């Protein structure tokens, strides 16, 4: 109850922030876009990571207003970057299970795009396998609607869920994000290497883009580029950062 109240207080007091982590296109090193990651900027405790409050917010339903705020803020900030003269970037936003299951999920997104003026192709939604397994035919319909609008879909934390591979055949998605747990020791552990290689080959054959998460070192990057991974995200390139820092970062990278 205390944490629930604290969360409500945080919502009321606008203590949430989005931090943005760049996603890097191979070969050129070009920035393709960003993933928006929520942080709770607590007046006494400093930054609190989503692992500590997203689950609870799901349980209490507070995830719904929170997710609306996340989507609106991420879209608005992406429009702002473009207005500052940067090239067009794709903004990736995490979707929670409860948010996805709401009847008005697609309408809410369409409304937010309209209100913020963000073009649909500049929005990507990140969903986990577990969200999509809930009700596959329904999920496929929703994904199809989103993709017809021009929004792209990434499968997050790939390889950590409990789903079978057969659904990859049917899901209308654009991208697979290899979970960072497979990347960490990919160079030294032949089992991780085999799994990562397998995911990349499969993604290529299925004509899906493949992104490696948790790229922390030059060695990771060099290794994964040789394996024909398409996109990279991790501390080696940049940590998630507030919008003002991101703007500075983008100026320095021009
Ligand atoms: O930022 P960090 O690595 O601590 O994020 C941990 C997890 O929290 C990630 O798996 C991410 O999917 C989730 N997360 C981060 N931001 C959001 C958000 O805005 N909405 C939802 N639903 N999940 C988020
Ligand atoms: O669950 P999801 O993949 O959406 O969450 C991404 C999380 O991974 C973010 O919370 C971010 O803070 C974290 N992250 C991003 N890059 C790295 C990295 O290079 N190493 C580690 N350990 N974590 C990272
Ligand atoms: Na994510
Ligand atoms: Mn992930």
Q: Give the number of DSSP strands.
A: 9
Task: Please identify which CATH superfamily we are dealing with.
Answer: EAL domain
In total, how many domains does the architecture comprise?
1
CATH class descriptor name: Alpha Beta
User: Ends: how far apart?
Assistant: 48 Å
C-alpha-based Rg, rounded: 18 Å
Helix count equals 11
Indicate the CATH architecture.
Alpha-Beta Barrel
Low-confidence stretches: none
Please render the helix and strand layout as text:
Elements (H helix, E strand, L loop, with lengths): L1 H11 L3 E10 L5 E12 L3 E3 L5 H7 L2 H21 L6 E5 L2 H5 L3 H12 L6 E6 H5 L2 H14 L2 E7 L16 E4 L1 H4 L6 H16 L3 E4 L5 H9 L4 E2 L10 H10 L2
Parallel strand pairs: 2-4, 4-5, 5-6, 6-7, 7-8, 8-9
Antiparallel strand pairs: 1-2, 1-9, 2-3
Helix pairs in contact: 3-5
Bound molecules: guanosine-5'-monophosphate (G) (2 copies), sodium ion and manganese (II) ion.
Task: Tell me about this structure.
This protein is α/β, with parallel strands linked by helices and 254 residues long. The chain has a single domain (23-34, 64-252), classed as TIM Barrel. Helices cover 45% and strands 21% of the residues. It contains eleven helices and nine strands. Strand 8 (209-212), helix 10 and strand 9 (231-232) form a beta-alpha-beta unit. The chain is globular and about 50 Å long. One guanosine-5'-monophosphate is lined by residues 37-38, 49-51, 54, 70, 94, 96, 156.
Descriptive key words:
254 residues, binds sodium ion, alpha/beta, TIM Barrel, globular, binds manganese (II) ion
């Amino acid at each position: 109850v205390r944490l629930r109240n604290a969360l409500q207080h945080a919502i009321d007091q606008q203590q949430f922030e989005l931090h943005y982590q760049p996603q890097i296109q191979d070969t050129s090193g070009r920035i393709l876009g960003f993933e928006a990651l929520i942080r709770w900027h607590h007046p006494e405790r400093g930054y609190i990571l989503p692992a500590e409050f997203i689950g609870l917010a799901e349980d209490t339903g507070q995830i719904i207003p929170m997710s609306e705020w996340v989507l609106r803020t991420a879209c608005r900030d992406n429009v702002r970057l473009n207005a500052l003269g940067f090239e067009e970037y794709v903004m990736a936003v995490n979707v929670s299970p409860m948010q996805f299951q709401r009847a008005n999920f697609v309408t809410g997104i369409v409304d937010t795009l309209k209100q913020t003026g963000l073009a649909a192709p500049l929005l990507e939604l990140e969903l986990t396998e577990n969200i999509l397994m809930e009700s596959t035919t329904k999920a496929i319909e929703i994904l199809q609607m989103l993709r017809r609008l021009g929004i792209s879909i990434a499968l997050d934390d790939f390889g950590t869920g409990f789903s079978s591979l057969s659904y990859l055949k049917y899901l209308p998605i654009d991208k697979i994000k290899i979970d960072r747990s497979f990347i960490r020791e990919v160079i030294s552990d032949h089992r991780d290497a085999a799994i990562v290689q397998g995911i990349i080959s499969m993604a290529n054959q299925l004509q899906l883009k493949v992104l490696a998460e948790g790229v922390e070192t030059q060695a990771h990057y060099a290794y994964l580029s040789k394996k024909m991974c398409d996109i990279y995200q991790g501390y080696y390139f940049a940590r998630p950062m507030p919008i003002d820092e991101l703007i500075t970062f983008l100026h320095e990278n021009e």
